[in-house]
Amino acid sequence: MNTLNRKALLAFALITALIVSTMTMTVTPATAGKLQKQLVAESAIDKVIRRGVLRVGMDTFLPWAMKDKKGELVGFEIDVARRLAADMGVKVEFVPTKWAGIIPALLTGKFDVVIGGMGIQTKRALKVNFSIPYDYSGMAIVAHKEKAAGFTSLEAFNKADVEIACKLGTTAVTAVKKYIPKATLRLFDDEAQAYQELRNGNVHAVVGSAPRPAYEAIKYPDTMFLPLDSSFTKEPIGFAVRKGDFDTLTFFNNWITIVSHEGWLEERHHYWFGTKEWAHLVE
């Protein structure tokens, strides 16, 4: 997409946001000017345009966001954030943040938006506003061949003496509590630590966002296996923004709609989740 088209995209989204705002609010002429100035002053989009930089909060999850051999960030979310910034005509700045603290960091202004594979959940939506889904994910489970030998269902893992590793603050924790409530949870700040515990035989399984569990089973076939044929949950993924910023949320929704209709999101999803063409970048 050339620069002209990107500017047109941004203009279209901002104009739509303004029209929708006007249609959904009743204000007197005396207060219209004051209200408009207040909305502009509080809009993250306006601040991003003036700053020339979109600050994106994220954490590392394979293949959502990860560092390549050169130490550069790559992944599905990285592609999404870079395309979004390019369409806005600004630079992108990634702000790596521990997942357990990413919502508080957003609320205190450490960055403008979370683009990090965040599942849209009711509990989270009480604290932040979510865009419409731009992708869907699901929880999968990968197990240790010896410790979980013969386990072929979630119920087999649903025992107090079974240890399940997850990344702290993720929807994997929610999934385990819902579908394997009797299992003992082992929580880690870093997803890589959870998988290392599994390779070392210290836990029975890891629950995490697909497709990483499958990748781990393929990479370490002597120690890991997939007890289930597919993911056992499905969840919508959205951008997270601070509450009260209607223009920013509307712009993001418009952008997602546009690039979805282009087929670009589907193409990037297939590359990162449906192939291993990118494996040489990180292995």
TrEMBL record:
Residues 53-276 form the Solute-binding protein family 3/N-terminal domain. Residues 1-32 form the signal peptide. It is found in: Cell envelope. The keyword Calcium does not apply. Keywords: Signal. SUPFAM superfamilies: Periplasmic binding protein-like II. SMART domains: PBPb, PBPe. The keyword rRNA-binding does not apply. Its main location: other. Residues 53-275 form the Ionotropic glutamate receptor C-terminal domain. Belongs to the bacterial solute-binding protein 3 family. This is Transporter substrate-binding domain-containing protein. It comes from Desulfotalea psychrophila.
